[in-house]
Design a protein that fits this description.
Low-confidence stretches: none
Structural class: alpha+beta
Number of helices: 14
Distance between the termini: 61 Å
Radius of gyration: 25 Å
Strand order of the largest sheet: 2-1-5-4-3-6-7
Number of strands: 22
């Protein structure tokens, strides 16, 4: 046992090291997908077991455990090739090995102390384009991985501190934005120096033996913390079925199933019965499925520190060759949406067991839009990427968050100002999507509505979901509004045949897309919502008068018009009497 003060200082120092790596990469990267969207992550890992020691807090949660699984799978590959050596950096984006999709590139750097391998640093960065049949890597019609880009098996990017220019040339020859990629690659390589400096300072202060004891204690405590929370969940099996609208190629819904089994302090995720593999790109690796389960648990139990110990109380059954355990040559570009559905499933099952702690479904689709072409001013090729914001589910404690980032990835929407400055596009509007929240005692958060018009010829692809199967409510709460995608080209407004999926649509100057992300599901009966909150929702424009009266059962005492705006006043006493009469009549 290590004394509490030393343990706290070491834990804080380790977390600060990887936080600093996050921030340095975000500030140094050339591409806005990292610098604006924060699509990256950094972690420190045990060199023997590959377990997470610490992970930065500014990157994407979906890499929470995914990099641990990648490191664990890379270790035997490296050992077979002679082991880690000082100055080496390994690279891969193999989605069946590392999870997620081809754009998420992982680098692994060993850290030695007095000639002995002590730990492994790893980072993930989203590279804007990895080749493939559509710019940006989102290809809703892809039926195999090679249509999505170049696959990089585990290779030495640096050997003994020297860059392998042959590997770099092979990569840059296959992508549309080689200079941007080189800038992001350099930033990812250089940020390891930040980690090494911080870890060397910590070793000099405490010594290797003390740090090993602290790390073991940190993991043991995280495991104990997670087990204590799991033990509070009533033993039993909790099941949920949800669906994807289609896979982008075959217009047929895809069924996903989860049976969550709680036994004491052990938690088992059983995805038996999940369909697959998808013909199109709606597939993810088993490592990513596991990672998103941990992300969902972290949302429900945020107090548990992130390290390998927190993952130990869980086990998994993920059917081979299902959409949640992709294998070669399945396309995986839909990972950005499949991951969100894993979070929804975990929330939906836990809401049956511990409703006081678990929210309704969030908006459930990352709905990535990519816009690409040659900039009319510079002539340079560009790729712009926009992941959806949307509404979170309501909970026992509060309404859902409005216009939130995807809870599985936390990838931020690129700022309007940055977009219009950097790319030949302009925003017609960017607003809260009124009426999109799931109704409930605590309503879901509203989604987002935005329109983007192109100022020059461009190619647009969209990969989303949740049109046919909207985010669900819990404990009597209502579903949210579904996803909405409309394209305006050549003066005509139309909906893609696959509703929220479209590949390489040609846009001309003045063409536009009008998108509305789902809200979050509602929590509890709408008839229990505080009339004062409904009055606020009415006056804020989040719900309309008919919804307030029909769904929430309120009685509006009077309305006034102030500066061309209708202001409502809800009669609390009359509302309570009206609700009681409706309950009696039912």
């Amino acid at each position: 046992m290590m004394d509490a003060v030393t343990l706290a200082v070491v834990r804080g120092a380790l977390e600060q090291i990887v936080d600093e790596m996050d921030l340095n990469l975000i500030h140094a990267a050339l591409s806005p997908i990292i610098s604006e969207t924060n699509d990256c992550a950094h972690g420190l890992y045990d060199a023997r077991t590959g377990e997470t020691i610490a992970q930065g807090g500014y990157g994407l949660p979906m890499f929470l455990a995914n990099m641990q699984f990648t490191v664990q799978r890379i270790i035997p590959v490296v050992e077979a090739a002679g082991g880690f050596k000082p100055g080496d950096i390994w690279i891969t984006n193999d989605p069946y090995l590392s999870g997620t999709h081809l754009n998420d590139v992982i680098l692994i750097s060993p850290h030695f102390v007095d000639g002995e391998l002590f730990a492994l640093f790893a980072n993930t960065g989203h590279w804007m384009d990895m080749g493939g049949s559509a710019p940006g890597g989102w290809v809703p019609t892809a039926t195999e991985i090679h249509q999505e880009g170049i696959v990089i098996p585990p290779l030495k990017l640096l050997e003994g501190g020297r860059r392998n220019d042959g590997v770099v040339a092979m990569i840059t020859a296959n992508v549309r934005l080689p200079q941007q990629l080189l800038g992001d690659m350099a930033a990812m390589i250089n940020v390891f120096a930040i980690g090494r400096r911080g870890l060397d300072d910590l070793v000099a202060r405490y010594g290797v033996d003390t740090l090993r004891v602290c790390i073991a204690e940190m993991m043991a405590r995280s495991e104990a913390d997670m087990r204590s929370y799991i033990a509070e969940i009533p033993d039993g099996s909790y099941e949920l079925i949800d669906y994807f609208d289609n896979d982008g190629v075959v217009d047929q819904r895809l069924e996903v199933k989860l049976k969550l089994v709680v036994e004491g302090s052990d938690l088992h995720f059983d995805f038996t019965g999940t369909v697959g593999p998808a013909v199109g790109p709606m597939n993810i690796s088993d490592a990513t499925t596991r990672s998103l389960c941990f992300v969902a648990l972290k949302h429900v139990f945020p107090e548990v520190p992130v390290n390998g110990g927190a993952f130990r109380p869980t086990s998994f059954t993920i059917p081979d060759r299902s959409i949640l355990a992709a294998s070669y040559p399945s396309a995986v570009g839909g990972t950005t949406d499949v991951t969100q559905r894993v979070v929804d499933l975990v929330f939906g099952t836990l809401a049956q067991a511990i409703p006081d702690k678990t929210p309704a479904a969030p908006f459930g689709t990352t709905g990535v839009v990519s816009v690409s072409g040659h900039h009319p001013d510079s002539g340079r090729y560009y790729v712009a990427v926009y992941p959806y914001p949307g509404g979170y589910g309501g909970s026992r404690a509060s309404d859902g968050l409005v216009n939130g980032t995807p809870p599985g990835s936390m990838a931020k929407f690129m700022s309007v100002e940055m977009s219009e400055h950097r790319y030949p596009v302009h925003f017609e509007y960017f607003a809260i999507r009124e009426g999109s929240a799931g109704h409930g005692e605590h309503r879901g958060g509203c989604g987002t509505a935005y329109g983007i018009a192109t100022d020059a010829d461009a190619v647009v692809s969209i990969l989303g979901d949740r049109v046919d199967h909207a985010p669900f409510g819990v404990q009597g709460g209502g579903p949210a509004a579904p996803n909405k995608v409309e394209l305006r080209t050549d003066g005509k407004t139309w909906i893609p045949p696959m509703r929220s999926k479209a590949t390489k649509v040609n846009f001309h100057k003045g063409d536009a897309m009008h998108l509305g992300s789902p809200g979050g599901g509602g929590f509890g009966s709408p008839m229990l919502r505080d009339p004062r909150l409904i009055e606020d929702d009415l006056n804020d424009g989040l719900i309309d008068l008919q919804t307030a009266c029909d769904i929430y059962g309120v009685v509006v005492a009077d309305t006034r018009t102030i500066l061309d705006r209708t202001v409502y006043r809800v009669d609390g006493e009359a509302t309570r009497a009206h609700r009681e009469s409706r309950r009696t009549a039912a």
